[in-house]
Amino acid sequence: MATTMQKAVAVGGALTTTATGIVTNQITDEWSWTWGATLAVLVAAGIWLAILALGGSSPTVRAQHRARADHHGRIDNSGAIGREGAVIEQTATRGGAITDSPVTAHGADIDQSTDHGGQITGSPSDIR
User: Fold this and answer.
1) Which of 5, 8, 105, 106 is nearest to 56 (CA)?
2) How far is residue 13 CA from its own chain's centroid?
3) Cβ–Cβ contacts within 10 Å for residue 2, how many?
4) How confident is the model at residue 60 (pLDDT cuts 50, 70, 90)?
5) 70-125 pLDDT, tens per residue?
6) Quick one: which of 11, 32, 59, 125 is 20 to 30 A from 1 by CA?
7) CA dist list (Å): 115 to 64, 68, 79, 109, 111
8) Distance in angstroms (rounded) separating the CA atoms of residues 90 and 76
9) What is the pLDDT of residues 19-34, one digit of tens each?
10) What 3 state SS string does the chain have?
């Protein structure tokens, strides 16, 4: 889903393109410095909008959180915050424990694993 900024850039780009076409037609009919300056401003605005569009053009990818506790493993109050395609995996097996272990991932992969009584402490979970 497009953000408000992406929508504003798209509308601004369409309006700038239309205005540039109208001013170009006017210049070809009757040259003036006013029309020339207007065209220069519109071209600069179009370039600026194109740069903004490139900066915000990455698709929104959902984060993934996989938590698994088995064979007496525990994951308690363990959270992860993932954004932009982050993949967070938490595994506690054979008496291992992950407790209060905050993890924040922004477009990165994180793997927390413990077993045989090992412990990871310090992480709550909130995936968006």
Assistant:
1) 5
2) 21
3) 11
4) low
5) 888 887 776 677 777 788 888 888 888 888 777 777 777 777 788 888 877 775 55
6) 125
7) 22, 12, 18, 20, 13
8) 11
9) 999 989 998 888 899 9
10) CCCHHHHHHHHHHHHHHHHHHHHHHHHHHCCCHHHHHHHHHHHHHHHHHHHHHHHCCCCCCCCEEEEEEECCCEEECCCEEEECCCEEEEEEECCCEEEEECEEEECCEEEEEECCCCEEEEECCCCC
Q: What is the pTM of this model?
A: 0.47
The two three-digit tokens of residue 28, written as one number = 């070809």
- Tokens at residue 31, please? 């040259």
Are 53 and 76 spatial neighbours (Cβ–Cβ below 8 Å)?
no
Structure tokens at 3: 């953000």
Tokens 């210049």: give the residue: 27
